[in-house]
Each structure stands twice: as structure tokens, then as C-alpha cells.
Specification:
- The chain has 127 residues and is mainly α.
- The chain is built from five helices and no strands.
- It has a domain of 86 residues.
Length: 127
């Protein structure tokens, strides 16, 4: 992790983000199904946000850890959805959408948003 002044805050927010994604992915399917294909956009968006978040907290030399961790998370959730029998199903296209989200987030981080937490903390220090 980058040398961040508000490290505990960033870690706490990270834990909440991960918990929300895990809960939303594994909760029983109660309501009507979303429109065909829209769930893939949800997967892509969630993993894009997670990718942008975590690349803002680590140095570029650790981006591979972010990528591997998020892909492992997505695969684990898909496996759990397949075995839990609560109205969820494991789908290869969901994992593909997760992967695309991670890759798009990584690409944005490499070109634009990487290390954003340092910039935020610098901005806060000037206040």
C-alpha cells in the first residue's frame, strides 16, 4: 500500500466496498430478474470501480496484485453462486464481464487515475 496518512480510513472503506460486492453477489435472488444482459453491465461496473479504487491505494508495481485479487474474487463468487442453491447461478459471461471491468479499470488507472489516494490526501492537507 502507498504511504497514506489516512490508511485506516482507506482500508475501512475498502472492506466496506468488498463486503457490499460480496453481499450483493451472494444474496438470494428475491425480486424479478434484471433485463437480459443488464447484469453483465452491473458486473463490469462493479469490477471497474473496484479496480479503480484499489489501484489508487497501491503503487504501480503492485497493480498485478490488484488484478489477480479481483479476478480471484470474481471467480470465487461465481463458484459460490453455483453451489449455494439460493436462486443464483454461476455464469462464464459474468466472469468475462468481471474481467473486462478489471482490465478497463487498470487501463484507466495506468493512464489517468493511478495513485489517486495520494492526490486526495495532498489536497486534504492543503485545506
Amino acid at each position: 500500500m502507498l504511504p497514506l496518512r489516512y490508511r485506516r480510513l482507506w482500508v475501512a472503506i475498502s472492506a466496506v466496498l468488498l463486503a457490499v460486492v460480496i453481499f450483493a453477489s451472494l444474496q438470494p435472488n428475491f425480486g424479478p430478474r434484471v433485463a437480459h444482459g443488464f447484469d453483465k453491465l452491473e458486473h463490469l461496473s462493479a469490477y471497474l470501480v473496484l479496480s479503480l479504487w484499489f489501484t489508487g491505494l497501491v503503487g504501480r508495481e503492485r497493480y498485478w496484485v490488484v488484478v489477480c485479487g479481483l479476478l480471484a474474487l470474481g471467480l470465487s463468487i461465481e463458484v459460490l453462486q453455483g453451489v449455494m442453491n439460493v436462486g443464483r447461478s454461476a455464469e462464464a459471461l459474468d466472469m468475462l464481464a468481471n474481467t473486462v471491468g478489471v482490465v478497463v479499470g487498470l487501463t484507466i488507472a495506468l493512464g489517468l487515475t493511478g495513485h489517486w489516494a495520494l492526490r486526495v490526501e495532498s489536497w486534504l492537507a492543503r485545506r
